[in-house]
Each structure stands twice: as C-alpha cells, then as structure tokens.
Amino acid sequence: MSTFSQDAEQLRAAIRERYTQTLQSSGGCCGGSASSESSCCGTDCCSTTESGVVTGDLYSETELSSLPVAAVLASRGCGNPTALIDLKEGERVLDLGSGGGIDVLLSARRVGPTGFAYGLDMTDAMLELAERNRVEAGVDNVRFLKGVIEDIPLPDNAVDVVISNCVINLSADKGRVLREAHRVLAPGGRFAVSDIVYQGQFPEVIRSDLDAWAGCIAGAMEEETYRHLLQEAGFVDINLEVTRRYSLQDIADSGGSNSLSRLSEDERTGLEGKFVSAFIRARKPA
Questions:
Q1: At 191, which helix (H) or strand (E)?
Q2: What is the CATH number of the domain that holds 20?
Q3: Mean pLDDT of the chain
Q4: What is the pTM of this model?
Q5: Helices 174-184 and 223-233 meet at what angle, rounded to 10?
Q6: In 166-286, which ranges are E strands?
Q7: Is the pLDDT of residue 41 over 80?
Q8: From residue 276, how far is each of 115, 222, 282 by CA, in Å?
Q9: Element (H, E) at 275
Q10: What is the DSSP-derived secondary structure letter of residue 54?
Q11: How many CB atoms neighbour CB 183 within 10 A?
C-alpha cells in the first residue's frame, strides 16, 4: 500500500499518471489490464449498465448516441451532473475535472449557441482527447482549460453553473475547491456536482492510502464536512441526495483492498453501504 500525508502535488502526480496510463493502454480505458485499476471509480469503465461499480447506467442512450465514442469510454464519473441541473439557453457552465469532455459537450448542447461551456483538467492527455472529441462532435461553444480545481483559471463571476463528476473527492484541499467554485460563479449561480461521500466517521487507515485516493475512495468527504465546507465557502440551499451505495467489494475494486485488509472484521462490516455516490446541489446567494 502506498501511503502519503495528503500532499497536494504528490496526489496530483499519482492521479495524472493513472489517467495518462489509462488512455495509453491499448488506446483507451477498455483495453488491457489497466482498464480495471485506472478508472477513477469503477471496475468497468466501458459499461453503460449496472455492471460498472460506479460508472454504469449514468447517461441515457439518447445522450450517449450524440457523443463521440472516445468521450463516452473516457468517462470515469460517479453520476451524471448534467441531469442535476436545468441548464438554460445562454448560460455559462464550468466542469471541474472535465476528463474526456462528456459532460462539457452535453452541457454545451443544452445551453445552445448563445451559451458556453468550459472544461478544466490538469492532465495533458485528457485535454488532448477532449479537444479531439469536441472537434468530432462539431461543438463550437466549448473551451478546455488546463489547470487545477483549487485554482480555477477564470475571473470572478465568470459562469452561471459549476458542475463536476467524481473529481472533488480527489483534491487534497476541498475547502479551497469549493471557495474557488463560489468565486467564479455569478451571483445566484448554481453548484451541481456528483461526488463520492462517506456517511459516518471516516476510517483513517483508508485516508492515508494513495491507491485508494486515486480510486476515489480515500478522498471521500464525510457528509457533514461537505455541508460545512459549502456553507463556509458561502453557499446556501445545500442539498445532498444519495444515488448509490457501495459494498465492500466495490471499495476493494476501487483501490481500497489493501486498506480493507488492515481493518478488523467488525470495522470492515461497519463500512458496508457507508460510501455513497451523491448529487450535491447548492447556490451562490444573489
């Protein structure tokens, strides 16, 4: 088990390496042995059914049919943030950790030619893939930005909606991410993300496992902490809706197997169903 002390650069380096290797393995996430361990939160990133631990059954067939295959296969989300929010014509959207661009492209179509969608990612390979997907999809009202979600390269009040798909949990400084999201939102702007959340008191032995961080497990925030940090950042109307619960096997498959082996049987039993995918919604006051 690789351990670390939540050092931001060490964590980013591990995540970059994992995602780059995923894309390089036989041309995408569906090829080679890397596909199971490299997907952020699932054992089968190629699935659009319930067979995927987290990634399955998130998008409608209509949504998937309108996107390049590469964008669909590169998705490692734990939800469909575009289903969280009623995007309107002319709105500006920012996707934190946009990956292959699936949620950016869907958002761009929903806001129409008078709206705009930004995608922010720190991994060169993902940004290159996203731009290829944008060109293939023929979508013009999109721009992909390189950067980290703790320091968003946009001015204050730049967007109307911030979305994200199983990425905030990967950050070592989640409070800063939420403050940045609040900063770039215009007054009255909306925050609508899918993320992994822990319901209860998080076991520290998992928190220090680097493999489990890169697999979206160790970085999960406790539900009350998530709510508190959103309030502290200035958000109101905070709502958290559980969409899926994960078993011990799901946790092991997502990078937590070594950490689980260090827990007692009672401790492992206590984890059952505590890791969840959730829709988190909030609003910046007008």
A1: strand 185-198
A2: 3.40.50.150
A3: 78
A4: 0.77
A5: 40
A6: 185-198, 221-222, 236-245, 275-283
A7: no
A8: 32, 10, 18
A9: strand 275-283
A10: S
A11: 16
